[in-house]
Structure formats: structure tokens, C-alpha cells
Specification:
Elements lengths: L1 H12 L8 E2 L4 E4 L4 E3 H4 L3 E7 L4 H16 L5 E7 L4 H10 L6 E8 L1 H5 L6 E5 L4 E7 L3 H11 L6
Parallel strand pairs: 4-5, 5-6
Antiparallel strand pairs: 1-8, 2-3, 2-6, 4-7, 7-8
Helix pairs in contact: 3-6
Length: 160
Amino acid sequence: MKSVLIAILLATALPAQERTPQKMPIFRAKSVSGESLDNSALQGKTALIQLWATWCGYCRKDQPVVEKLSKEFASKGLIVLAVNVGETREKVEAYLKENPRPGVKLVHSLDSNLAAMIQPQGFPFYVVLDKQGRIAGVQAGSGGEVALRDLLGRAGLEND
């Protein structure tokens, strides 16, 4: 767990030219649809991991942008894992009935070790992995579309 925190600190604290991308430690996740996800399942793809909660207003604000970018970059191999943190399945399912999340792979924190590894101090919290499975960048909090596009750009995803 310490290696994820160190990699996240390096990804945010150092200027871009001084960063050494760190491999994402081994993680596991199972989506609400039953899909098994781990480092090998994301190999060769860019991954945006969003840690979120139903009560988080900023998460709700970012939701349409995350889904828009997921759709926009799907053909370039973007996978979005939306990991709900610390809430019951019933609460999340009730939320999703009123606020569907198309285009993202939804994960309960009980079905993944990502929230425990990353240990976000607030929500939303984003980690982007490049196609080699390295942590290309992180973002704490909502920054809107411009900030999320910049984050994806750190992993090599940009509009043509």
C-alpha cells in the first residue's frame, strides 16, 4: 500500500520532467456487471480510476464529464473504473436507478482493493494509468472537463 501512496505523491509533487512513472501495484476489482478487472485486464489500455461517493456533490458534478470523456476516448482504449467508496450496495443501486452511469465500469469498494490502496482523502479522486500500467497522474477533487482532459493527456490521450 505504501508504494501506491509514494507513486501518487511523486505524480503530484514533482514537476513533469522530473517524474518517474511508477507501475500501479497489483489490484483487483469486480464490476457490478460481474466483470473481473485487474492490471492485466487493463494492459494496453489507458485507465481512469474515479473514486466517488453518492453523497458527494462534486462527484455528481463531474459525472456527466466523466461519461462524456469515456465515450469520446473509448475508441482510443480508455477504460473508466468508477469505484464507489464506503457505501452499501443498496445505497449505490438506488442512486444508479436515478443517476445511471453509462460508459463506465462501476465497482463497489467491497469488490476491489483500489480504495484501500489509494486511500483518497476526499472525493472525487482520480488516478490515470497509461497503456503500460504506470501511474501517469492523479487529481484530488473536481476540476471539471479541462482538468480531466489534462489528466488524460498525461497518459497520452488527446483529441486528434
